[in-house]
Design a protein that fits this description.
Number of strands: 6
Helix content: 40-55%
Number of helices: 12
Oligomer: single chain
Shape: globular
Largest sheet: 6 strands, antiparallel
Low-confidence stretches: 160-172, 291-295
Length: about 300
Amino acid sequence: MGVSWKDNITLADTLERVADLLEAQDAMPFRVSAYRKAARSIAEWPRSVAELLAEEGEAGLRALPGVGKSIAAAVAELVRTGQLGLLQRLEDESSPERLLASVPGIGPELARRIHEELGVRTLEALEQAAHDGRLEAVEGFGPRRGQQVRELLEARLGRSRRGQARLREGAGEGPRPDVGLLLQVDEEYRRKAAAGELRTIAPRRFNPSGEAWLPVMRRTLDGWGVRALFSNTALAHQQDATRDWVVLYFEKDGDEGQCTVVTAHGGPLDGRRVVRGREVECLAYYGVESEETEAPRPGA
């Protein structure tokens, strides 16, 4: 298949694809949630899941949070064969037109025209077409409906593939890493990304060519597991900030969350890297004496 099925992120992305297809086919919510939870667990696991399988078998996989017997068997199948029968069946059953018609405001006839005229087969490709103007050129679409589709897809696809909806961003609830730790990871990530030293993945959103351009880095500091990657949201692309906004996902002892680190524009933190929602702490970190904090432009 041209990819390494021994990679945790690749395994997690495959489980997320299963969850997407199950959701599109109106499967029971608990089943969709189970695959999303397992995907997040595998993506965040600090060691190779393939090695865990080799050493401890499927019993070792079942010890992972959120990974039950059936999903453990699916992961084992992926690692050993590079394929997943369940995914293939779901893809065979999910025609592009049926998937497109699952978006509110797009009926079967519109879905057929979008698929035939634009060659759109996935929701990610539909989102790209909604943003680059091609969708509004399809008969039955205008600016108003195009905007509606953009908003619906942003809500649907912007939801974390790994349970991000349940993470806190600057909410102030529960333990969080110090801003110094977050800024340290941010600096290392951007430096290594610029030097081409990090593994890259091909995001499904806003990536019509399928290019593997998005660098990913994982670190463990002070007991916190942190995953860093550039923001790949619609807003980040609109603001030309995909190489500036860095999203950090963190977890420690069951406490988890996310934050976005950006370059501040204006105010006492002008030009500095800032953790959104924690500007006051960043002032103290940089030793800036001011009661005014001008928040940086909105992040992902």
